[in-house]
Specification:
alpha+beta, 4-stranded antiparallel beta sheet, 7% strand
């Protein structure tokens, strides 16, 4: 819990790694994920570092692995389970893996190219077959000839001949030529117009569509093609026709000169197509066997290459000592993990067989350490909410432990509904129970991943919504009469005529027997029938929102004391914390007191004479109110006293801290004191660093030394400090007013959610329930389905997201700014499990 409250205590350490064991030591550290490495060669570019060649080899292996994964995915071969976690391979084994991958790449490349060549040949033969089959109908014009042929008037005699082939045309003395082939259907109209314009009518174009889809060799997608036959007059026209065919990417095939030649070609094509199918099937089987064998090891290779590349990247961050026999690395490490770090270095040295062991040495530093807050699967979601506002400064109070309770509670105040809370809790509980399901964890749907990562937040919000739904006594806009209402209608003694003639009747709690006592849990269910229900809930929820808001903000101000005490800024307790708390409680804390006092002091008998809290609160600032009925004896004097205290706390908050620091800065030089001890002159910079390291371990902040004037190298700027404190004072005083009003969103969204739920019930569900005919039961089924869909989509998703965002704002702006700086740097350990993978990003894994 202490780690979650403040984060881990960090230290800067130096690792002395022997050259022979550095690779194994860093591999051990990568498996544990304990340390964050610092770059000791910031001025050296990436291409000038020592292990740049090894990193290039890893990138080449990653390229080959990407090619293998794409081919495996294209062949629809499933990868094995990802339970393996191989260690990083030794440097002497890298070349073996490299050669194995290159050999596999060459083999796959050859097989794939052969397969593509065979497929291309098969496509050409198939197109040639279709061309010969369809063009037979163009030359031999039978009675079943398709009406797609286009003829022109230059050869009118062709319409009269029932049968015409190449030899008969030669007898007529016509120097005719033929070009046949296939073209995509979308291009045929433009192709036809181009032929007509260029050849000026000296061509005859006949075409017909192929019944089946053919594969496009460029894109691999199935497309519709058209077979065409062009008869042209003269050699010059033939050259133009061939150029036009090339421009439109037509697949041109030789046209047989006689029917006998056509039959021979068709028979030869049929035999070749059968042979190609046989060879292609065997090639695909062999390719699949190679890919299946590769898929068994590809995930292991991916992990090994990723680890190996990360190790060489870390080695480039290290520097060599003067003898070039030892690598020196600087790391940030949690103090509690130093023994584990030493054991990891010993294990790495033992694996490498080094004679001189590697070791670690803590060093003092004046740099601010990164922030490490250890979380588990339950607390990580709430910590992410806090980190989205800003990573906490080193060792400052972390709001996440309190957010675990306050965030779902404030959400439930706005979302309070028993039925909706049960649905949300059941959905979240299902995600929690199935959290180890790989299909749910490894999906690429970002919206689902957002819900799944926040499953524990949703579970807590659902459970708290059930609680607030019981308090509001609201379940799908209806109240539950579990314990029996505390109000009785019989005691009023109304007659039958009064029941029939009056639409609204008022229950008087002053009549004996009408009000028996409060409902045991939550709001009495009779208020669901009352005409003034909304007025009652408005007053109740508005005052409840103000009370919760003041308590929440006061708690945030109180938490700031933990930062002041830990960082040894005790003067802030008297000059910042005390004025802030007095200003908040003397004004708005008094408002909470008046609300609670009015609830307790006035009963149903004298409620008509109860004064208005709002009028009294306004008159408190105006120093008026003599003509109004007081809420309690001595109210005017107490209010004047509280206002005076609140006003006096403002100049203390504004001037107290800057004046004290100014006096402390000048007085420290004159008195020569440091924490009550006599300061000695430090002749070396090392002693100053040792003192600062000791202060850091004891909880002192580095900024305190400079701000207190205890750092002789930095000067204290009174104007800068005064300006900073003035901005803080104005922001805090105005923020107390605006933040209190901001908590009224609890009231507004709670009423909005209740009214939307009531409208949905009245306009959908009540329509189905009012049908008393036989068909009413059947009609109720689609009505309930519509009601369920609208409830989930509007009230659960949209209203839930709205309440989530408003609860987020209340924590970020109204709560955390009272004590949380959020200006730290997150601790990023070197861990193999946290390394990103480009293959996972591309969807290959």
């Amino acid at each position: 819990m202490s780690s979650l409250l403040r984060g881990e205590e960090m230290c800067l350490a130096q690792l002395f790694l022997q050259s022979g064991s550095a690779y194994d030591c860093i591999s051990e550290l990568g498996e544990l994920g304990l340390v964050e490495f610092r770059d000791l060669n910031p001025s050296v570019t990436a291409f000038q570092r020592k292990h740049v060649n090894e990193i290039k080899k890893c990138e080449e292996m990653e390229r080959i692995l990407g090619y293998l994964l794409r081919e495996v995915k294209k062949a629809d071969i499933s990868l094995p389970e990802r339970d393996v976690n191989p260690v990083a391979p030794l440097p002497k084994h890298v070349m073996a893996i490299m050669e194995q991958l290159q050999r596999l790449e060459v083999e796959l490349g050859e097989v794939t190219r052969n397969k593509e060549k065979l497929q291309r040949n098969l496509l050409e033969l198939t197109e040639y077959t279709h061309m010969l089959r369809i063009t037979r109908k163009f030359v031999q014009r039978t009675a079943e000839r398709e009406p797609l042929q286009v003829q022109y008037e230059e050869f009118p005699f062709l319409e009269k001949e029932t049968m015409m082939d190449y030899s008969s045309m030669q007898r007529l003395g016509a120097k005719l030529g033929f070009i046949s082939g296939l073209i995509q259907r979308v291009k045929i109209e433009a192709f036809e117009r181009m032929l007509w314009r260029v050849c000026k009518g000296y061509t005859i174009l006949s075409y017909a569509e192929v019944e089946e889809y053919l594969e496009n060799p460029d894109t691999g997608e199935p497309t519709k093609c058209v077979v065409f036959l062009i008869s042209y007059w003269g050699d010059q026209i033939g050259q133009k026709v061939k150029k036009i065919c090339d421009c439109y990417h037509c697949h041109v095939y030789p046209y047989p000169s006689s029917n006998e030649e056509r039959n021979d070609v068709v028979e030869g094509l049929r035999t070749r197509i059968q042979d190609l199918h046989t060879v292609l099937n065997r090639t695909e089987d062999y390719l699949r066997q190679v890919l299946i064998k590769a898929s068994e090891s590809v995930y292991t290779w991916v992990i090994q290459v990723k680890k190996m590349k990360a190790i060489y990247y870390i080695l480039n961050l290290c520097s060599f000592d003067v003898t070039n026999k030892c690598l020196i690395a600087e790391v940030w490490c949690p103090v509690n993990d130093i023994p584990t770090l030493r054991r990891a270095l010993e294990e790495g040295s033992r694996k490498s067989g080094a004679t001189v062991p590697s070791f670690v040495n803590r060093i003092p530093t004046s740099d601010t350490p990164p922030t490490l807050i250890k979380t588990n699967k339950f607390t990580s979601g709430f910590q992410n909410i806090v980190d989205a506002y800003g990573v906490g400064s080193y060792r400052e109070v972390n709001p996440a432990p309190f957010t675990i309770i306050t965030f779902p509670f404030l959400f439930a105040v706005m979302f309070g509904d028993l039925g909706h809370g049960v649905i949300m809790a059941v959905f979240a509980a299902w995600m929690v129970l199935c959290e180890n399901n790989r299909k749910l964890k490894n999906t690429r749907n970002e919206i689902w991943n957002t819900f799944f990562e926040g499953r524990y937040i949703i579970l807590m919000m659902g459970l708290f919504s059930i609680y607030t739904g019981l308090i509001y006594n609201d379940c799908f806009s209806k109240s539950l009469n579990i314990f029996g209402s505390g109000w009785s209608v019989k005691a009023m003694g109304w007659t039958k005529e009064q029941w029939e003639n009056n639409r609204f009747l008022t229950l008087d709690p002053n009549v004996t027997g009408v009000f028996k006592g409060p409902y045991p849990l939550g709001i009495d269910p009779i208020w669901n029938l009352a005409s003034n229900r909304l007025t009652f809930l408005n007053s109740y929820k508005m005052k409840m929102s103000v009370i919760l808001g003041i308590i929440h903000m006061s708690f945030g101000v109180i938490l700031s004391t933990y930062n002041y005490l830990h960082f040894r800024k005790k003067y802030n307790l008297y000059l910042v914390f005390l004025p802030e708390l007095l200003f908040l409680l003397c004004l708005f804390g008094y408002l909470v007191f008046m609300i609670l006092y009015k609830w307790l002091a006035f009963s149903a008998k004298d409620s008509r004479h109860a004064p208005s809290i709002l009028i009294h609160f306004i008159n408190m600032f105006l120093m008026q109110g003599d003509g109004l009925q007081p809420l309690y004896p001595g109210q005017t004097g107490l209010q004047i006293f509280l206002v005076v205290i609140a006003v006096l706390s403002v100049p203390v908050l504004l001037l107290g801290k800057p004046v004290y620091l100014y006096w402390l800065h000048n007085g420290s030089h004159r008195l020569g004191l440091y924490r009550g001890y006599e300061r000695v002159r430090r002749n070396s910079e090392e002693e100053l660093y040792l003192m600062r390291a000791h202060d850091m371990e004891e909880g002192s902040s580095h900024s305190d030394l400079s701000s207190s004037g205890e750092n002789p190298t930095e000067e204290f700027d009174f104007a800068d400090e005064l300006l900073h404190q003035a901005i803080h004072t104005i922001e805090y005083c105005l923020g107390c007013v605006s933040n209190t009003a901001s908590y009224l969103r609890l009231w507004a969204l709670s009423l909005a959610h209740a009214q939307l739920s009531e409208v949905l019930w009245a306009m959908v569900m009540r329509v189905g329930l009012r049908m008393d005919s036989t068909l009413g039961v059947l009609f109720l089924v689609p009505v309930f389905g519509l009601f369920a869909v609208l409830t989930v989509s509007i009230l659960l998703v949209m209203e839930g997201l709205s309440a989530f965002l408003h609860a987020l704002r209340l924590h970020w702006v109204e709560f955390q700014n009272k004590f949380y700086g959020g200006t730290g740097v997150k601790f990023c350990p070197f861990a193999f499990s946290l390394l990103p993978s480009s293959f996972e990003h591309d969807g290959l894994l």
